[in-house]
Design a protein that fits this description.
The protein contains 4 helices and 3 strands; from the N terminus they run βααββαα. The protein has about 100 residues and is α+β, with helices and mostly antiparallel strands. A hairpin with a 2-residue loop joins strand 2 (about 35) and strand 3 (about 40-45).
């Protein structure tokens, strides 16, 4: 996991034992915690309020992907409706799935 060294990491068992403490810590710090299993990062937990901007950025990135795809297809001479672009980007082509 890239950049996990900058984030707080805990073993899953430690988190389970003291979850209340770590949840309060996350709410105060607004920083996620990486949970490790067998020495490898397995989960990232984050409070919902801090997660919301990431979710919005993800949705914008998907929209920009679809716009780029639509422009590319238009340059090829294909005119697609927004529904067709969505269908082709996110249903048919695994490359657009995130």
């Amino acid at each position: 996991m890239k950049n996990s060294k900058k984030l707080k990491t805990l073993s899953l068992s430690t988190f389970k034992r003291r979850s209340g403490e770590y949840i309060r810590q996350m709410k105060r710090s607004k920083k996620p915690i990486v949970l490790m299993l067998d020495g490898k990062p397995k989960l990232v937990i984050q409070d919902a309020k801090s997660f919301q901007p990431l979710l919005e950025a993800y949705e914008k990135a998907r929209l920009f992907d679809a716009i780029r795809y639509g422009v590319k297809e238009l340059q090829k001479g294909r005119e697609l409706t927004p529904e067709q672009i969505f269908e082709e980007c996110y249903v048919k082509h695994a490359a657009f799935k995130r």
